[in-house]
Structures are given as C-alpha cells and as structure tokens.
UniProtKB/TrEMBL annotation:
Residues of the 4Fe-4S ferredoxin-type domain: 253-281
Organism: Vogesella margarita
Name under which the protein is recorded: Cytochrome c oxidase accessory protein CcoG
PANTHER family cross-referenced by the UniProt entry: FERREDOXIN-TYPE PROTEIN NAPH
Keyword field contains S-adenosyl-L-methionine: no
Residues that span the membrane, as ranges: 21-39, 59-88, 145-165, 177-196, 333-353
Organismal lineage: Bacteria, Pseudomonadati, Pseudomonadota, Betaproteobacteria, Neisseriales
Gene (name only): ccoG
C-alpha cells in the first residue's frame, strides 16, 4: 500500500539583516512600488499616460495610441519578455525572484508591516505559540487590517490602469464605484493579501512555475548564491583573529583539527525568507535574495576573516576557484542578446515609422457603377478613417493613376481619437479606361502633416 503524501510546512520568521544587497533589495521595493502606484496618476498631453480602454480597445502609452491592428507590437513585447527571461536566468539565475518579483516585493512589504506591529522574529514566534489573549488579538487584528488595506490599495491601483485613475478616485470618494471595478479591485487585493501576507515563501517553493523550469536554463556558468565549502568546512566555533589551520596541513599533529571559515552560527538560515540552509548546496527554493551573503559578511568582519564565504558565483568558478566567465565565453548569451536587440530595434523602427491613422476603403454594395451627367463612370466607396491622435486631422484622397481616374470628395476631417466614415466617388473616363475590373491605387494624405501617407487599393468597375 502506497504511503500518502502530506504537505508539511511551518511559518518562516526571517531575521532582519543589513548590508549592501539588502539596500539594493529595499531600493527595488521602493522604486517598483513608486512606479506601480504613481504611474496611473501621471498625465501626458492632458490625459492619463498609461491606460487600456476596454470600450474602444485602445492602449494609451505616453501619447502613443495602439489599436487592435497593432497586435504585432504586443507579440514583439511578449517575445522580448520571454527571451529576456531566458537570458537573465541563464546569466543571473533567480535574481529576478530575489529582488523584483511582485511576490517577493509584496511579501517584503507584508513582513515590514508584521515586524512593525508585532515586533522582531523571536517575539512573533513566541506570540504565535502562546494562547490567544487581548494583546495577541489586538496585534494580529492590526496586522491583518493594515495588510488588507495595502492589498486593497494595490487592487484599486490595478483598476486605475483600465479606468481613468482620477475618475476612479472621485467615484470612490463619492461611493459610486462600478461593479466590475469593485470586483477586480477586491479580487486582486484578495490574492495579494493571501499570497504575500500568508502563503509567502510557499508560493515560491510550491506554486511558482519559474522555480520548476529554471533548471532547464541553468548551466555551470549561471550566477548563483553559493557557499564555498572548500573554504568553510569543517565548521566550528572560533574567536576573532583565531588562526585558520589549512586542511592540507591537518595531519601535522593528531590533536590538531582543521577548521574552516564557517563558524556554524546559523544566521544564514535565520535570514533566509524561504527557510533553507544555503550550505547544503544548490536548491530550487533559493530565490537569490542574497540575505545570507549580507549576514555572512558581517560574521566574517567580526571574526577577522575575508568576506565571500557565501557569495554570488557559478558552479564552474567555485569548483575551479576561478573568476567569473565573460560573455564572450558564453555564445548562448550572445545569441539571446542578439535576438533581443534585433526584435527591439525592429519594433522601435516600426513604431517610429508608424502612421497614426488607419483607412479602410470598401465598395458601396448598393451601387455597382453609374454614369454621370458628363458621360463619366462613377464608382462609390465607403471610406472609414480612424484617427489615433488626440487632435482633429484633415485628410485628402488622391488617385495614383492620375489622368484616368479622379476623386470627387471634399477634405475629410476626423476628430481626435475617433472614427469617421465618408462616401467617396472615383470617376473614370470610359474613352480612356476600358471595360472590366481595374485596380486603382489611392493615396491618403494627412494635410496637417503631409509626411504621413497611407497607400490603399480599390477595385474600379467599368461597363
């Protein structure tokens, strides 16, 4: 009979640490949240700088308006994100997880709230193990209330990327928020509170797919948080300025025992947000946050030893005691980087050359062709112009086969960020153009900026 599997986990109480990597990690938390919470409030040319409008299916991005027809740019962005993930993981392992992943960032914020209300790890551990009392209820309630408030704020901010943020804030103040806005805000806020406030490291260890497939992108030259066991073992307590006995010289005397640099203080385990022991080697639970590096460097300073017992390195560099390899020694990185630069360059060129209006020319099915009073043949079309710029624009149609066909249409004016349809007639001389179906090239020129030109085709029928 098979033994059932049970999921056993205990809450991790990571110890607060300082150091250069902690400073960088805190900076990433502050910068990412400043961008996330501040961007919906930023205006650009009189409107919200970044917003996706579901009603009109338009993406507004710092004055640029993208339509469903511009799906290729979304595809390019997704490809760049995928290649960037492959490249970054191959080069730097899980640094994304440790410093800028939303789960890590929000977990860090929730731990700050918990630490501020309930105290350091030892106090929180004792309080959690103690029976419920007035103080415990008060502190736990305050913690959860603050976490829920922050989570709800993140949910409302997310909605602000789809509903105008200032309008959303005004409606919220008046108690008139829409059903869909409230549903999305509560859903995202609830997941933030659950995943970052309670599940925390369990998301990284058991739910995140990135932790599972990252091994396929690792190689022996991928940057990892690594423990130098050759220098650190065997572990043991020591005093400051205590001389290290080289392992190779351990056999000088039977009573002399070799001692490594690791003092076996266990601080690297206490500061780890996922609760692992980095000294046990490479583990998928390690998110590369470098908290163990900071605390170990402090211990090395106190014991008068060189820093770097735990450091960012690669499996190859640790085994061979060599410096980190350069990019020239890693052709796969050059391939990924070249593809990234190529796609970014092509996308940027496409955006720079993109004409900010769209035109559709469709034959009027109710009128095949007709003869005018002067003996010419008219074909009637419905011209649909979509102006993606904020200001009104004027357009004119020109027939490229001049002399055979002319356009009978006034200047076509379209309001900013809108679509207008016009009936336009193409007129041809039957003495010059033979009977049958003919393809006619049509130029649509923006009269307010003549450099913006689109070329379309129309089918002209002659009796």
């Amino acid at each position: 009979m098979a033994t059932p599997l049970h999921f056993v986990s205990s809450k991790v109480y990571p110890r607060l640490t300082g150091g250069r990597f902690n400073t960088v990690r805190v900076a990433f938390v502050l910068v990412t949240q400043l961008i996330y919470f501040g961007l919906p409030w930023l205006n650009w040319d009189g409107q919200q700088a970044t917003r996706f409008d579901f009603d009109s299916m338009r993406l507004y991005l710092f004055g640029l308006t993208l339509l469903p027809q511009d799906f290729i740019y979304l595809a390019a962005a997704l490809i760049v994100a995928a290649l960037g993930l492959f490249l970054w993981t191959m080069l730097a392992g899980r640094l994304w997880c440790g410093f800028s992943c939303p789960q890590t960032v929000y977990t860090e914020i929730m731990i700050w709230i918990e630490r501020w209300v309930e105290g350091p790890p030892n106090q929180r551990r004792k309080r959690d193990a103690a029976p419920w009392g007035a103080e415990k209820v008060l502190r736990k309630s305050t913690t959860q209330l603050l976490m829920a408030a922050f989570s709800l704020w993140t949910g409302l901010t997310l909605v602000g990327y789809f509903t105008p943020m200032r309008e959303l804030a005004a409606n919220l103040g008046a108690g008139d928020i829409g059903v869909w806005e409230a549903l999305f805000a509560l859903s995202y806020g609830g997941f933030t509170w659950l995943l970052a406030g309670h599940l925390r490291e369990q998301v990284c260890k058991h739910m995140c797919p990135y932790a599972r497939f990252q091994g396929a992108m690792f190689d022996r030259d991928t940057l990892l948080v690594a423990y130098d066991d050759k220098r650190g073992e065997p572990r043991g307590a020591r005093r400051k300025q205590h001389a290290i006995i080289p392992i190779a010289a351990a056999n000088v005397g039977r009573d002399d025992k070799p001692q490594g640099a690791c003092v076996d203080c266990g601080l690297c385990v206490q500061v780890c947000p996922t609760g692992i022991d980095i000294r046990e080697g490479l583990q998928y639970e390690c998110i590369g946050c470098a908290a163990c590096i900071d605390v170990c460097d402090e211990v090395m300073d106190k014991t008068g030893q060189a820093r770097g017992l735990i450091r960012f390195s690669t499996q190859h560099a640790m085994a061979q005691q060599q410096p980190l390899p350069s990019l020239r020694q890693r052709p796969r990185a050059l391939v990924y980087g070249g593809l990234l630069l190529g796609i970014v360059a092509l996308s940027a060129t496409g955006l720079a050359l993109r004409v900010p209006f769209k035109v559709d020319i469709l034959r009027d099915r109710a009128v095949m062709q007709r003869e005018s009073n002067d003996g010419y043949i008219e074909n009637v079309y419905n011209v649909r112009i979509m102006n993606t710029e904020r200001d009104s624009r004027r357009y004119r149609l020109q027939v490229e086969s001049a002399g055979l066909v002319r356009v009978e249409a006034p200047i076509l004016q379209v309001a900013g960020d809108s679509v207008s349809s016009f009936n336009v007639a193409l007129v041809a001389d039957p003495a010059v153009l033979p009977s049958g179906s003919h393809t006619v090239g049509v130029r649509i020129v923006n009269l307010d900026d003549p450099s913006q030109v689109l070329h379309e085709e129309a089918r002209l029928l002659m009796p």
